[in-house]
Write a structure and sequence with these properties.
By secondary structure, the chain is mostly helical. Helices cover about 55% and strands about 10% of the residues. Among the domains are: about 40 residues; about 80 residues, no CATH class; about 35 residues. Strand 4 and strand 5 form a beta hairpin. Keywords: Membrane, Signal, Transmembrane, Transmembrane helix.
Length: about 240
């Protein structure tokens, strides 16, 4: 029983539990791993579930951002992140008004020079003038072509023609009720058609007594009854 023999025997005894533990671990996995091990299908299902939850969370966040932006809260929306980096969103802008005269002519973006004694508009701190009549005509025919006149740098339609805008033209240039009414009728085709029909109906009602007297005079006139032999056969046909 030499010391070397005793050390070898103790080393072998220590190795037996370690090898037994290794064999038991290979047979029985730790409790955090499913019995039989995690299969490839299980991992794919977990990844799919996590991806769906992430997408739903992003969708809810986007809907919430849109609703908060509608209430005036300054928060990025889908439109803000969808605009390319080199293309900025058109900004609202105030307007400047001037009178084109023979002594001080003004250029017009649609007709080179504005006619004398006509009002012209331009974004504030800008020399890109356009006459009021030309701007209204372009806006009524095709509103999508208004903003590109200024290279889509300014939101002209939203700034100048929206009643809720602080830069609305209707609050300054069209202060008289008659001007406001005329502008409303010209901006809405249904209002123009209704106005024409209503005007004709009103004229008929106003001149109905006169038309009735003229009809009676015609029915008892000599001119009508002198031609009786000609049109009597058609009446009794």
């Amino acid at each position: 029983n030499s010391p070397t023999m005793r050390i070898s025997t103790a080393f072998l005894i220590a190795l037996v539990p370690a090898s037994a533990a290794a064999s038991s671990t290979s047979k029985y996995p730790p409790p955090w791993i499913p019995r039989g091990g995690a299969s490839t299908k299980t991992k794919q299902d977990v990844r799919k579930y996590r991806m769906e939850q992430q997408q739903l969370m992003q969708l809810r966040s986007m809907i919430l951002s849109e609703e908060l932006a509608k209430r005036g809260i300054p928060i990025p929306t889908l439109q803000d992140v969808s605009v390319p980096n080199d293309q900025k969103k058109p900004e609202k802008v105030d307007w400047d008004c001037a009178m084109a005269t023979e002594d001080e002519p003004k250029s017009c973006m649609l007709s080179f020079d504005a006619e004398a004694n006509t009002k012209v508009l331009a974004p504030i701190d800008s020399d890109d003038w356009i006459s009021v009549s030309a701007l209204n005509r372009l806006r009524r025919n095709d509103p999508t072509k208004v903003d590109p006149m200024w290279h889509s740098k300014f939101a002209i339609v939203e700034s100048w023609f929206s009643p809720s805008s602080p830069y609305a033209l209707s609050s300054s240039l069209a202060s008289r009720p008659s001007t406001l009414l005329l502008s409303f009728v010209l901006d809405h085709k249904w209002a123009l058609s209704l106005s024409i029909v209503g005007s004709l109906f009103t004229l008929v009602i106003l001149f109905l007594p006169v038309l009735e007297v003229l009809a009676q005079r015609l029915l008892v006139s000599d001119f009508l009854w002198m031609e009786w032999p000609k049109w009597a056969r058609d009446v009794h046909a």
